[in-house]
Amino acid sequence: MNEQITVNLNNLTEEEREQFKTLVDKGRGKSSRESCVWKPKKGEVYYYINDYNVSIADFWNNVYVDKDRRKIGNIFKTEKEADFAKEKAKVKRELERYALEHNDPDYSGNDYYYIIMNTGVKDTSVLEYWKAKVEGATHFTSEKIVKDAIEAVGKYRILKYLFGVDCEEEAND
């Protein structure tokens, strides 16, 4: 079935244009990566983290502030998701600060240590460290420093917030 439809896009709102484009792409068999990222509908409640590190509810009005929050990943469906994102950022920053405070400033090696979760074993609560170069990861200049960082920040917080492992039971042991 090959149907042709003519649509005057000037008669549509910006939101309707975006929806129309998504439908046309879907009809052509194209999937838009951006459409995989949640975007609230006009008037829908979403949560964001404000300048005071507080999760705030707002209504999506498709205005620049909404779009800017979405561009940087600062919109969430629930307050719980926003709170999780805050704690994740906090754990990441604690590791980065630990590295800044404890790494050897004169280190001239090419390889650093990084925190990894070994998914190749049944016990996914095992955190390890790995010597390599990893883009975007916090690096440590020695095995001792990475071990101390894991202890200082908390193994179960790292597992939960950076690797998405539900390990509350183990944390209470």
Care to give the gist of this entry?
Helices cover 40% and strands 13% of the residues. It is built from six helices and four strands; from the N terminus they run H-E-E-H-H-E-E-H-H-H. The termini are far apart.
Question: Can you walk through the features of this model?
Answer:
This protein is of the alpha+beta class and 173 residues long. Among the domains are: 34 residues, no CATH class; 75 residues, no CATH class. Helix content is 40%, strand content 13%. A hairpin with a 5-residue loop joins strand 1 and strand 2.
Features:
single chain; 173 residues; alpha+beta; two-stranded antiparallel ribbon; two-stranded antiparallel sheet; 6 helices; 4 strands; disordered C terminus
Instruction: Provide the low-confidence segments as ranges.
Output: 169-173
Class derived from helix and strand content: alpha+beta
Query: Level of helix content?
Result: 40-55%
Helical element count?
A: 6
- Can you tell me the overall shape? elongated
Q: What's the helix-strand series?
A: HEEHHEEHHH
Mean pLDDT: 83
The biggest beta sheet is recorded as:
2 strands, antiparallel
Radius of gyration: 22 Å
Biggest sheet strand line-up: 1-2
Distance between the termini: 63 Å
Strand content: 5-15%
Q: What is the tally of beta strands?
A: 4
Topology, element by element:
Layout: H1 14-27, E1 45-49, E2 55-59, H2 64-71, H3 79-102, E3 112-117, E4 127-132, H4 143-153, H5 155-163, H6 168-171
Antiparallel strand pairs: 1-2, 3-4
Helix pairs in contact: 3-4, 3-5
